[in-house]
Design a protein that fits this description.
This protein is of the alpha/beta class. The strands form three sheets. Strands 6-5-4-3-2-1-19 form a seven-stranded mixed sheet. Helix content is 25%, strand content 20%. The protein has two domains: 5-221 and 397-444, Metallo-beta-lactamase, Chain A, CATH 3.60.15.10; 229-392, Rossmann fold. It is built from twelve helices and 19 strands. Helix 4 runs antiparallel to helix 8 and helix 6 (229-240) runs parallel beside helix 7. The mean pLDDT is 94. Strand 4, helix 3 and strand 5 form a beta-alpha-beta unit. The chain has helices at residues 39-44, 56-61, 100-103, 119-131, 194-206, 229-240, 256-268, 277-286, 328-333, 350-353, 374-386, 401-411; strands spanning 5-10, 19-24, 27-31, 92-94, 115-118, 141-144, 150-152, 155-161, 170-176, 179-183, 211-215, 247-251, 272-276, 304-307, 338-341, 360-364, 389-392, 415-419, 442-444. The two termini are 14 Å apart.
């Protein structure tokens, strides 16, 4: 048998879309499988034009948005494609966390291939499926226990927790016949679970790895401000202490740490947090899986309310929250007592909420990458129309460039492979050898 190899089928010079193949003799695993944020996608597909459900692989292969690989896709997903169905050629798919760009293509995977995820990630994927139109497919799901090796022939995968903007995130120590490959997934060390990232980095260094596959989202030019989760809390505290008007906030709907932060800030200011029906379901469905996060729970937390948007029909998962839910007239009456979480897709509610001009709007999400960001332009149009003041308080889910450099030095791999980044050149000189991977190329391990 030849030496083990690593091959990159996605996440190369782009943000998201990690697809990493590790092979050792007859054994082959895939780490993460989600769509990228590639500009190619935006050239051909968009909100009103999506790949056809009847030919999901074929339509994406047409524009190079999926890897052309045998023994991975289900027969159903391959319908109409020139790739022929075959027996599985992968012994497992390992999912680092529940963000779409790492798990969003699982629905295309052959159900005969086991899918491995942490308990937290599995819980979140189930909740997302139940409350959205996202589907991950039927699989042989296998829950990983942190620190417990998963043996796939010659390959041994050790999952360890890392801090990210979604709980349940994992990094992997991948032991092969020629040494250990470290895979960071998406991670940071300025969030509420920074100690987990530090422990992961220490464990990775102790392996004396032959290779480090690391995300580099914020490597290279990064003008955005650096907040910790504590910094977000401090900013929101300060803002709420200076207003007697309705305060609004927009954040990522699966960032449970952020909802815990916002709830704590609201309570400290004598307010209650108001969330959407979907957020209420997510908090209810997952809080037991994450006992160390002070997640507010609908129906159990007096300072948490659920906002009911007027709809002609409510989904079954929404109905348990309807009886106690509040509406726009109630919010207007109690405005100074509330911090209302409002997703951008629900901005039409501002027409009914009628916030007083000058009311604060907190964007607790990433700042736009460019001045011509269409979502950012739309946000400003709505805020200007209602006279709302914008405040930016967000802790990134990714390590900064200086942090990445320090981590690479500490882990001291033989080779570093930057993925999930548009600037792999930023890593040059940080390790003995930096390899900017090419799509589909196999690199020997060891």
């Amino acid at each position: 048998m030849g030496r083990p190899t690593v091959r990159f089928l996605g996440g190369v010079r782009e943000i998201g879309g990690n697809k990493v193949v590790i092979e050792d003799g007859p054994d082959r695993i895939l780490i993460d499988f989600g769509p990228s944020f590639s500009p190619v996608w935006e050239q051909y597909w968009g909100q009103y034009l999506q790949p056809r459900p009847s030919s999901p692989v074929k339509d994406r292969l047409e524009f190079g948005l999926l890897p052309r690989v045998d023994g991975l896709y289900s027969e159903e997903a391959l319908a109409g494609s020139d790739l022929r169905p075959s027996d599985p050629e992968f012994q497992g798919v390992f999912v680092s966390h529940a963000h779409m760009d790492h798990a969003g293509h699982l629905n295309l995977v052959d159900p005969r291939i086991p899918v491995y995820a942490s308990e937290g990630t599995r819980s979140l994927l189930e909740a997302i499926e139940a409350s959205t139109f996202t589907r991950y497919g039927e699989h042989d799901w296998r829950t990983m226990a942190y620190g417990t090796p998963v043996k796939i022939g010659r390959i041994e995968v050790v999952p360890l927790p890392v801090d990210h903007s979604i709980p349940g995130a994992s990094g992997f120590l991948i032991r092969t016949s020629e040494g250990t490959v470290v895979y960071t997934g998406d991670f940071r060390q300025h969030g509420p679970r920074a100690a987990e990232t530090r422990a992961f980095v220490a464990a990775a260094a102790a392996e004396h790895p032959v290779a480090l596959i690391t995300e580099g989202t914020r490597a290279g030019p990064d003008p955005r401000r650096q907040f910790s989760e504590e910094g977000v809390r401090s900013g929101v505290d300060s803002l709420l202490g200076t207003t007697d008007r309705l305060a609004l906030v927009s954040c990522y709907p699966r960032d449970l740490d952020r909802f815990a932060t916002l709830h704590a800030a609201a309570v400290a200011a004598g307010r209650s947090l108001v969330v959407s029906l979907r957020t209420a379901y997510l908090l209810s469905a997952t809080h037991a899986t994450f006992p160390t996060i002070p997640i507010p729970v609908p129906g159990e937390t007096d300072t948490l309310h659920v906002y009911r948007r007027p709809k002609s029909r409510y989904f079954p998962w929404e109905r348990p929250f309807l009886e106690a839910a509040v509406d726009a007239p109630w919010v207007r009456t109690h405005a100074k007592e509330l911090l209302l979480s409002l997703e951008m897709s629900h901005f039409a509610e501002l027409i009914d909420l009628r916030p007083v001009p000058g009311s604060p709007f907190i964007r607790s999400m990433s700042e736009p990458f460019s001045e011509d960001d269409l979502n950012d332009q739309m946000l400003h149009s709505w805020l200007d129309h209602f006279g709302l003041s914008l405040h930016q308080y967000h802790a990134s889910g990714h390590a900064s460039g200086p942090e990445l450099e320090q981590i690479v030095h500490e882990v001291a791999p033989g080779t570093v492979f930057p993925v999930h980044t548009e600037h792999p050149e930023a890593f040059v000189g940080w390790a003995k050898r930096t390899e900017s991977p090419e799509l589909g190329t196999s690199y020997p391990i060891g």
